[in-house]
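User: Predict the complex.
Assistant: Input components as received:
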Amino acid sequence: MNSVDVVVIGAGQAGLSAAYHLRRLGLVPGRDLVVLDQAPSPGGAWQFRWPTLTYGRVHGMHALPGMELTGADPDRPSSEVIGDYFAAYEDAFDLAVRRPVHVEAVREAGDGRLLVVTSAGEWHTRALVNATGTWDRPFWPRVRGQDVFRGRQLHTVQYPGPAAFTGERVIVVGGGTSAVQHLLEIAGVAAATTWVTRRPPVFRTDGFGEVEGRAAVAMVDERVRRGLPPRSVVSVTGLPMTEAMRRAREDGVLVRHPMFEALTPEGAVWPDGHRVPADTVLWATGFRAAIEHLAPLRLREPGGGIRLDGTRVARDHRVHLVGYGPSASTIGANRAGRAAAREIGTLLQGPASVSPDEAVILSTRRERSN
Ligand SMILES: Cc1cc2nc3c(=O)[nH]c(=O)nc-3n(C[C@H](O)[C@H](O)[C@H](O)COP(=O)(O)OP(=O)(O)OC[C@H]3O[C@@H](n4cnc5c(N)ncnc54)[C@H](O)[C@@H]3O)c2cc1C
């Protein structure tokens, strides 16, 4: 049995930010702190993103704390650029990420600590930072006829880039940035494309600055504070209208249709009987928080979400969720990692949770790190 002060689950932007700040508090990775990640390589979810999502096409990616990402080739896939950057970051700060390690469950250890059960053994810990993102839990809506459709159905997580759709008739479902990016790419090679969304998309033509960003985060934060499941950031920010999108609208590509009623063996059918034949339906329908492993802790509220106070779970102060809800962006993940580390520093020093000897160790670590 391994015993540590803090387990961080996930080595994406949020987990690395938390690990960086915990290390600055004096916790030593590998001894006091362990970062577990199920992915094969550094990069968090970025390593799985499609090859045509080049670094130059990523919007508002914030660098990790303490190390800038400079001189990256905008034409290189973001999966490679960010994979290399995260690898260099983990090395530079000796974060000693353990991978691939899949966390299966987090339970009460019975002694006031938590028990983290993984594919590589068990850890006892006093605090937990959950930074598992959403990529591993794609959301597929249920639609009548999905099982009879004879074509292909893919989700964004499986999107291989546009070449795989050459000459096909493709229906793209979803109102977020990924859906629009897929649609615009595929339209260049497909025989026909149809874009459907559940709600009419809201395009932003004005600038999206700090004030708007804060307002959007506050809306998601408000839901999470009420114990409701978080909404995606695009659902509150709208879609920023780019030059490519303007052109696609003029060309009749970026034309939204309401959600179809059902799939048929040949394609989709709408309530008024209108039919569109299709070879592929691409579900760009988003993600949910990948937090099934936390189920034994019973953190959910009656509203279905996990109520947070900052990053701290209201029902269990040992547990922090970072990169979740209002912090599900690269800048949000950075801030949440710092906030979680600070609160855990306080928790580890708290009179009720540490022995006097341990409090001395933590204050010594703090002195070493300053
Ligand atoms: C297609 C796409 C494009 C985006 N573009 C942008 C952008 O341009 N700018 C921006 O700011 N944000 C963007 N975002 C959002 C941004 O990616 C995220 O907010 C942020 O990078 C997520 O970081 P994270 O650390 O929360 O999660 P992730 O990067 O998903 O990292 C989570 C890590 O946890 C691991 N993990 C999951 N479950 C377990 C488990 N049970 N056990 C062990 N490990 C586990 C995963 O393997 C992964 O390595 C984008 C998101 C998507 C889906």
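The helical segments are 13-24, 78-92, 177-187, 210-225, 233-237, 243-250, 330-349, 356-369.
Let me know if you want any component modeled separately.
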